[in-house]
Specification:
alpha/beta, 6-stranded mixed sheet, about 30% strand, globular
């Protein structure tokens, strides 16, 4: 359980293991439930269309403490495939993305920030992590550069 009191539901780990072991899932988006008690799977996809994934993050919504809906943070895992530098072939890194847009409400950002480590500890096999606070942080080239440490 996280410092925030938010717990990780077992489906989060099961879905991550499907991505990691079977490679049938390309990405997962996680959210904190409306009750602010659990981290749950919001959506998965087996399509490698990064633009679709990115749009889902950018358009995510969360409720503030007062119940108003606005821009929302999310956690995500994306299986990033890229060309290794120097023509050494393809590489793949399972990457954890903490999406917390600067213009989201304070309460959701605080809850996502204080609950992140509980989810990360549950997901064994992450190769990289990216903290993203604006749309430029989740552009494909930016992500590849961070993951490949170019």
């Amino acid at each position: 359980m996280a410092q925030s009191g938010v717990s990780v539901v077992p489906e989060c780990i099961q879905t991550f293991n499907e991505l990691k072991l079977g490679k049938s899932i390309k990405w997962i988006i996680y959210r904190i439930s409306d009750s602010w008690k659990e981290i749950e799977v919001e959506e998965t996809s087996n399509e490698a269309n990064y633009d679709t994934f990115r749009e889902k993050l950018v358009n995510a919504k969360s409720k503030s403490k007062s119940g108003e809906e606005g821009i929302g943070p999310r956690y995500a895992v994306y299986d990033v495939e890229y060309d290794a530098p120097g023509g050494e072939g393809k590489r793949s890194k399972i990457t954890f993305i903490a999406w917390s847009p600067d213009d989201a409400s304070t309460f959701p950002k605080m809850m996502y920030s204080s609950s992140k480590d509980a989810l990360k500890r549950s997901l064994n096999g992450l190769a990289a992590e990216v903290q993203a606070n604006d749309q430029d942080d989740i552009e494909w080239e930016t992500l590849v550069n961070k993951v490949s440490k170019r």
